[in-house]
Amino acid sequence: MLGACLRLLLLLPLVCCVPSPSRSPPRNCRRCCDNSEPPAATAQYQMPEVRTVINMTILKGDKGDKGDKGTPGKPGLEGPPGYRGPLGPKGTKGQAGAPGDACKIPHSSFSVGRRKSLHSVDYYQALVFDTVFVNLYEHFNMFKGKFYCYVPGIYFFNVNIHTWNFKETYLHLMHNDKEQVILYAQPSERSIMQSQSVMLDLALNDEVWVRLYKRERENAIYSDDVDVYITFNGYLVAPSIQ
Fold it and tell me: Where is this region: Disordered (predicted)?
């Protein structure tokens, strides 16, 4: 029995190698001059597409340098105001300021008169006064008959006199040593009141006064001890802008 089994096992490979008589192997007839064609089975087989995938995380390089600052963009809309912050601590007391200029006076005015007549005996003669109506801060010097400017600015001046009949009246309103306006009356049978006014731009320490001018004729102004006929007035209109 064992021997029969061994013989069957030896014959099994031969049976498997024998081609089946019912199916012959395929053959393709072609001429020798024809181009070679791949078998049908080979034509149906497609090679798979190979795509290379690079993992960028593995190839990540070092961090580059910081680029240049870009141009600023347009400002945005203004936001709503924030809440008021808490009150801060009280600051320390500051230093005392420089002392002010005590000589800087924003006002200046005067009004003076003369109760005595005057005959001019010199070629030029300053008219002095003996009566004070107003002399704010003593800017008018009664001994010299001159107003001294301590507050630069625009001033208004006015002089009034009474002429002497049959005598000439010739006066100048002076700014320092220069004549500004004239007050003149020819000799006449009767005496009259004469007036002259002017506005002057004065600098510090300028002088304004009245001067008699004698020519060939006698120059005189009239007054008496009872009434005041001769007056000289001036006041600051606008101080200069410092």
Answer: 60-100
